[in-house]
Specification:
Elements: H1 2-25, H2 30-33, H3 35-61
Length: 65
Amino acid sequence: NAYMLHNPAHVELNAIDLAWDTVVRFSPFIEILGEGFFADFAHVSDDESRHFSWCAQRLAELGFK
């Protein structure tokens, strides 16, 4: 079970990184893209963080930290 949970946890962690990378990478274009663009990616990061937390919590319950 732990091996099966490790993969989605890794995917979720990468999704968090990519969402924040998008915010930082495109921040010089805030006037063109608008604040909503960045708010959407912050929301994505929040969702992915929650998903990662679920995986990490279950892994901890299985004895992996």
